[in-house]
Design a protein that fits this description.
This protein has about 450 residues and is mostly helical. It has 17 helices and no strands. It has helices at about 15-45, 50-85, 90-115, 115-125, 130-140, 145-160, 165-190, 190-215, 230-265, 270-305, 310-335, 335-340, 350-365, 365-380, 385-410, 420-445, 450-460. α2 packs parallel to α6 (about 145-160), α7 (about 165-190) runs antiparallel to α8 (about 190-215) and α11 (about 310-335) runs antiparallel to α14 (about 365-380). The chain is globular, with a radius of gyration of 21 Å. Keywords: Antibiotic resistance, Cell membrane, Membrane, Transmembrane, Transmembrane helix, Transport.
Amino acid sequence: MDSKLLSNENMSLKAKFLRYMIPSVVSMWVFSLYTMVDGIFVARGVGETALAAVNISMPFVNFIFALSLMFSTGASTIIAVYLGKKDIDSANKIFTMNTVVIIIFSLLIMGGVLLNLEKVATMLGATASTMDYVKHYLGIIVLFNGFFMVSYSLEVIIKTDGFPILATCGVIISAISNVVLDYLFIMVFHWGVMGAAIATGLSQVFSTVFFLVHFFRKNSTLNFSRFKFDFPEFKKIAFIGIPDSTTELSCGIVVMLFNLNIIKYIGEQGVVYYSIINYVNTLVLMTMMGIAQGMQPLVSYYFGAENSTNMKKLFKMSAIAGVIASAAFVVICHLIPDFIVGLFIDPTETAIFTEAIRVLQIYSYAFAFMGINVIVSAFFVSVERPGIAAVVSLGRGFFLILAALYLMIAILGGEGIWYSAILAEGTCMITAIVLYKTKIKAVYKDMKSPKVKKEKLNECY
């Protein structure tokens, strides 16, 4: 892979976009699929209560991933802009500071959770029947949280460095090792949910080592330099990364509140249905984020180079890809729902199996709107407009979905839970389109005015 891919003028813009998008989507698919494999092994090897417990634990994993997204998205955007300006030294300083800060945060998280494990499990919604499972799973996962965060950050920055295929290889290594270890620890050694957590943690260790090796090689544009904490740059990283981070963090909060309301209005069996929906929803969301991540470093590069024509083309290509992917997932959920649900629930359990199919098909209509929402948010992150991006990401990921959840419960009772995402994503898509239409001209105009651009950035921060 050419480490100068971003600036390679001999390659068409479409070829560059596909060169970034395809590995990004594949990486996200692999991540999603091996997360699903975790659920499949737990459901088949331990039981449905254990599957519900893993789903109850997921908001904590979302929290870890959200912090990593904040740092990696913010840092990769700034790094790409510096690369567009040919300022390699500044790019290296951001890369080094970002990695060290992530490690410090991960150690603080580990200490805090281990000292308050039962309180954290209770807050997440663990019940008497799931408490032990949740504590066993969280107690192991938190020991590896640093590897989760560093691994994802390095994966994103490797793509900005010009090696998107290498990033995919690292994710594949992690996925394969996780599947193999899941089988050994759950099905052979019978370690239950602890085995699933250990397998997932070790897989992140392997990918972290793989990614670190790249940055010590000569063909890497980015390299570690002397660590120096730069608060203004750290503030920029945080603010640029907040939209993507809040999307993931709010996703965890939403999952927690959905679980609590499902238990209240439907019962613990409903958490099993929602677990399956969450695995599918994660696959859809990761696909959209993969498309967005294929767009982001290129848009940021051309933003730094003040090339608005290529930025417009990249947005159009990404939006088309997002719409096609959204439609495809809705169709799949209606063509083969029995196959999807059958991965987690034995078809002989007729009542549970049939109900799980029904609620999955209802919920799947929300996927039709998700692509545009994620792409619009990612585009504004790429051009250093985190405030606009946050409106979209927080809308779809938190405010609108919670408003829709309680509104639909008020109208339809527990049944309304399955319709809430459709209302939230649809409303957000309308908002995202309006924001793009009204704000995009100002972005292109300000891009060519250093004074105005600086003033706009200061407003965001």
